[in-house]
Amino acid sequence: MIAGAIRWERTRDNVTRYYSLFVTRDLFGACVLVRSWGRRCASLGGKSQTVLDSEEECHAAIAEIEKRRAKHGYQRVTTYS
Predict the structure, then answer these.
(1) CA-to-CA distance for 64 and 55, rounded, in angstroms?
(2) I need a surface site. Which of 1, 57, 66, 76 has the fewest CB within 10 A?
(3) For residue 80, what pLDDT is reported?
(4) Residue ranges of the domains in the chain?
(5) Residue 81 has what pLDDT?
(6) % helix, strand, coil for the chain, step of 5
(7) What gap in Å lies between CA 2 and CA 31, rounded to an integer?
(8) pLDDT of 15-67, one tens digit each?
């Protein structure tokens, strides 16, 4: 079973941005990715949920998000299982 959280941060021009991902299961057994992003110490930001049918899809989505965060200069700061 997949469950946990990952957080990435990037600091540029004295502004720290974050991107976090929380993975859990819903009542029907589907994998749910909850993503949030924004600036640290600011009220602006966003949130998104994606429901996936299988663990394979979930692993693929997490790997794609990891690559995209690295491409944009984010570094992983925390991981919780």
Answers:
(1) 14
(2) 1
(3) 78
(4) 4-80
(5) 65
(6) 20, 55, 25
(7) 8
(8) 999 999 999 998 988 999 999 999 988 888 999 999 998 889 999 999 999 99
- Which amino acid, 61? A
For 64, phi then psi, to 5°, come to: -65, -40
Report how far residue 23's alpha carbon sits from residue 5's, in angstroms, rounded to the nearest whole number: 6
Q: What pTM, to 2 d.p., does this model score?
A: 0.83
Structure tokens belonging to residue 37: 């992003």
Query: Is the separation of the CB atoms in 38 and 45 below 8 Å?
Result: yes
Gap between the Cα atoms of 13 and 37, Å rounded: 18
* Residue with token string 């946990």: 4
Short-list 63, 81, 58, 77, CA closest to 19: 77
